[in-house]
Amino acid sequence: MITINGLSKTFQVAKRSSGMKEAVKALFHREYTAVEALKDISFTIKPGEIVGYIGPNGAGKSTTIKVMSGILVPDGGSCSIMGYTPWLDRVAYVKNIGVVFGQRSQLWWDVPVVDSFELLRDIYDVPEQEYGSNLSLLTETLELADIIQTPVRQLSLGQRMRCEIAASLLHSPSILFLDEPTIGLDAVSKIAVRRFIRTINEEKGVTVILTTHDMNDIEALARRIILIGKGRLLFDGSIDAIRSRFDKEKTLTIVYRNRPEPLQIAGATIESWSPERAVLRVDTEKAVLSDVLIEASKQVELLDVAIDAQPIEDLIVQLYKEHQIS
Amino acid sequence: MKLYWKYVVILFKSQMQYRASFWLLTIGQFLVPFSVFAGLYFLFERFEQIKGWQFQEVALCFAVIHMAFSLSECFARGFDYFSAMVVNGEFDRVLVRPRGTVLQVMGSKFEFTRVGRLIQSLIVLIWAISRLPVEWTAPKAVTLLLMVASGTFIFTGIFILAATLCFWTVQGLEVVNIFTDGGRQMAQYPLQIYKKWVTRFFTFVIPFSCVNYLPLLYILDKAPGNGLLYMLSPLAGVVFLLPCLLVWQVGVRHYRSTGS
Amino acid sequence: MKAYISVFKLRLYNGMQYRAAALAGIATQFFWGFIIIMVYEAFYSQGGIEAPISLSELISYVWLQQAFLALIILWFRDNELFQLITTGNIAYELCRPSGIYGLWFAKLLAQRLASALLRCMPIIAVALLLPEPYRLLPPPDPATFLLFATTLLLGLFIMVALSMLMYISVFVTLSPSGSMLVFAVLGEFLAGMVIPIPLMPGWLQSIVDLLPFRYSADFPFRVYSGHIPKDEAWIGIGIQCAWLAALIGIGKLAMGKALRRVVVQGG
């Protein structure tokens, strides 16, 4: 569906100068520095995938999205999406994609949401029947029925984002680009948006490419992560692969019947200890978790056990650290 | 074209959300050229004529250029506001939609309040026509229509050129006012009254004289020799618009390769 | 007083940063100046008509108008102030220990000065060197120049006091653009910005004389060229001071009333 090969892009950034003399000079001659936004990026995405495209600020995420959505022309490399080269056949190509920029609205601010939808129908030339069935499906799954007659400026951020996503799906695109779709949303809205993204992916088979800084989005949605840093592709694989690579430590919290002296358990480090409760750290490469538990139960009378994996956020931070891009 | 009207309808609905401010602005827009016209009237009251041109003739000149200006401010306002569109990234949105950029930018804004200005110039036009001792014929009426249309094209072309500059820089764009506001101010009078370099510039570079002065000679039966050339001179407005659209495409290409 | 001065300084430096805008503005104003002068030149070339102001006096009038445009236009919009008023954030301003009238006055004054300082020098310098008949002639004697500087400064204060009234009116209407546009168009016409006041018909001139608008622009420019003789200029300065006192008085009164309403309504 999407094949990207050796994509690269360099920007010329004018050097900022200060002072009157420099400013006058800059009128005639400007010095530029080249910034490599993308260096030899290659990956393929299959139909129906949800891919999390992540990386720190300035890594090249939005440049890639802009290239893939036909906004920007790269310097080198090829990109084939559904048989189109996005920047060459812009008008024909963009009929097949939907784009949501989380920070910017595509809806007309002062008119009811449905008016915006109807204009988008005309812009994308959606047949009446298709529009009708899409609209009723979207209204149902996104629970828009109550807000569709309200002017956009009166909507809450969460309501607006639901409408934004609906707006980019009216023309039944095969690919949906989501740029920070949950930014600024409250917890309830975030969960609703995630649930909906999964629904349309499963039911309509829409391929989703998602950039976000919220790792909970990634964990809830993406089975695959592409990590980019300083313009290079650093990691491409499943979340499980990251887990098995970095998530080698588990935190074990045990509660037991009163025992005045400290525990000694082979294969575990004692993080903290009290007569009723202890926190242990277990390196899963060196010790088996069940052995540790058995050992513990020999020493104390266990009342409660909790095992915590590292949050995905920490894993990503480790990944950034490994590549020295944070 | 059908789509463009849909854009207009949605913008009109938006505008109607702020009705009071809409009416006040429209009245204000009516008054702006009105005060200029009053100034013109007082000057003619004192001096009676300008280089052989009577007040009614200059009034016709005034009406045509102000109509053209207000029409282009109505329709091509999106280009006038284009720098904001580039700065806040709205133009990316335009590029991910399966329509031409010119249509979408034009459809992004429509200044309905300019109707006030349009009405004012229409009144002046009707007044001037009724007072001029001209025998109106079909070709003359067509020429008059062509003048307004062609003037609209020229102002639109200048707006597009200014918008294209935004792809490179958003600083110092006010200099374009020379050609929009300045062009309007200048073309209120028959171009003949100015110095040669002004007349030449505004005939061959930006063809304001072709929408106003030259065809006016034909309408007022002042044209020497064959009137046809004078009658058709407003077509220069179309000729002016085409390279502007071309330059716009170059600008869009530049934007898509630099993303700045 | 210190607070006012630092607000003034901040705004002045801020405004001076827009060099590209200033350059563009200078170019535009030159073009306008030329166009207007050529029109008057055409009118004057006909002869036979006794004009109430000579062409060279008129040309000085036009160049000074272009050079000091930022000081004398009514339509010098400060969106920050508008937003402050319409969004109700004015409450924050009320927390400051200085009087709002003075602070805003300083702010508006500085904005106009910054914008004018950047533009007036190059325009005047070039206009003084232009070939005849476009040249801006220097004032007839140093005393006239001093009178001009005084009247221009007083005129600037009058203009700021007038525009303060416009901002205060926004408290009542809460919608800036429409009513202000009407006010600005009328005010600028009556200040001689569309056509110079001496060229207006007599009946209109006698109306204009009764209003404050012409004392900001028309009056100093005619003092400059000597079109208004010195003894008349001294009387004019007296009228300027009277208007200034009256406008500031009205402004403060109106602002006090408007603010009380804001406090009562809670913004």
TrEMBL record, chain B:
The keyword Iron-sulfur does not apply. It holds the Pfam family ABC2_membrane_6. It comes from the Bacteria. Keywords: Membrane, Transmembrane, Transmembrane helix. The keyword Cell cycle does not apply. The chain crosses the membrane at residues 20-44, 115-133, 153-176, 197-216, 228-248. Signal peptide: none annotated. This is ABC-2 family transporter protein. It comes from Paenibacillus arenilitoris. The lineage of its organism: Bacteria, Bacillati, Bacillota, Bacilli, Bacillales.
Automatic annotation (TrEMBL), chain C:
The chain crosses the membrane at residues 21-43, 58-76, 113-131, 143-168, 180-204, 233-251. This is ABC transporter permease. Keywords: Membrane, Transmembrane, Transmembrane helix. The lineage of its organism: Bacteria, Bacillati, Bacillota, Bacilli, Bacillales.
